[in-house]
Amino acid sequence: MRIAVIPGDGIGGEVVPAVLPALELLGDHFGLGLSYRIFDWGAERWLAERVGLPPDALDLLASDYPAILLGALGDPRIPDMAHGRDILLGLRRGLDLYVNYRPFTPRGGDRTIALFRENTQGLYAGVGGTVSHGRHPAVAIDECVYTRETVEKFLRYCLRTLSESGRERVTLVHKSNAVPHTGRLWQGVFRAELAGFPGLVGSEEYVDSFCYHLVRDPSPYEGIVASNLFGDIVSDIGAALMGGLGLAASASVCPETGCALFEPVHGSAPDIAGRGIANPYAAATAVALMLDHLGHPRAAAPLRRALAAAARTDSATPDLGGHGTTGTFMADVMKRLEKDLADDRPEPRT
Ligand code: NAD
Ligand code: IPM
Ligand code: MN
């Protein structure tokens, strides 16, 4: 089971190396036969060689790596994020990872809300352009492009997953009052696909009012399905409801090929990069999502337990109110994990 590891930029290069020992420990303990290879794609390589996603990368990943672990991309020296789009959006689109699962558990509650974001089209389709008169762009266009085929397979996968997880409510987040063409396509497909899942009750909310309600009281929501940009924005709100971007992780998958990419929801956080205080919780949760996806939920469970316990202590990073560092937090997590595995419970608690 080969894993491609792309630490990337900023705190990506801090949190990803910090969580790899946990992956190794779990792989050894459960005999998963995991190995990984680190790829240096990111800002440094872009600035030195103008290489973002190397030309053979997609073929290599698709054929040899069933899972990718990514830190974050983004560097103040590349303000237009050209390398980030090339690498990150290149991976999402190039591997057709059209389902982006971004679960979040609002603080004070024990229920995880399953947010699904379409990950390859919409305003991220890359369709658009600028017309310049003189030195400045006079016209700028980014088209929101959705195909029925993608919306159908995305929503069908989300509804099936929600229904298999025992959830009963699903909300479509849209803006069809102002953005009618793609909005109506999504509504039509949502209603049609819901008919195949009698156990699910669907609702539809405008994204602005949805955000208002979610922030005021997330408790009514169980499953959320959203187009690319709305899902991006809502996932940062979800992270805030959890207690910070340091906690939220995501899985981007292509259900047909099984290709999958796991990453924190957060970015490269230049404001704290290099100080050793980035919270590795989200990156470690990305590892847990990866273990689930690879068919090893028994290996993911002790990692989640250790993370949750360590997050409540002073070894946690400052964003969680602790006085720790990336290193002290993961040292605490590893200690708990080793003890948990040594206790060798036959049935891990979930
Ligand atoms: P960000 O997510 O990097 O940071 C937002 C805020 O959250 C910052 O104050 C940061 O310090 C804090 N934060 C984020 N992760 C944290 C962690 N693990 N521990 C503690 N605090 C954490 O968003 P931004 O500042 O808007 O973006 C920075 C760069 O990252 C930009 O170049 C952006 O394009 C890029 N970005 C990349 C990804 C990705 O690679 N998936 C995601 C979001 C943003
Ligand atoms: C995310 C990020 C990316 C996105 C950016 C960096 C292109 O915000 O993964 O949430 O918009 O998808
Ligand atoms: Mn985002």
TrEMBL record:
Keywords, alphabetical: Manganese, Metal-binding, NAD, Oxidoreductase
Keyword set includes NAD: yes
A GO MF label: oxidoreductase activity, acting on the CH-OH group of donors, NAD or NADP as acceptor
Range of residues in the leader sequence: none
Domain Isopropylmalate dehydrogenase-like residue range list: 2-333
The organism's place on the tree of life at top rank: Bacteria
Pfam families given in the database record: Iso_dh (PF00180)
Keyword Metal-binding set for record: yes
Recorded coiled-coil stretches: none
Cofactor: Mn(2+); Mg(2+)
Record PANTHER family: D-MALATE DEHYDROGENASE [DECARBOXYLATING]
Protein name: Isopropylmalate dehydrogenase-like domain-containing protein
Organism: Embleya scabrispora
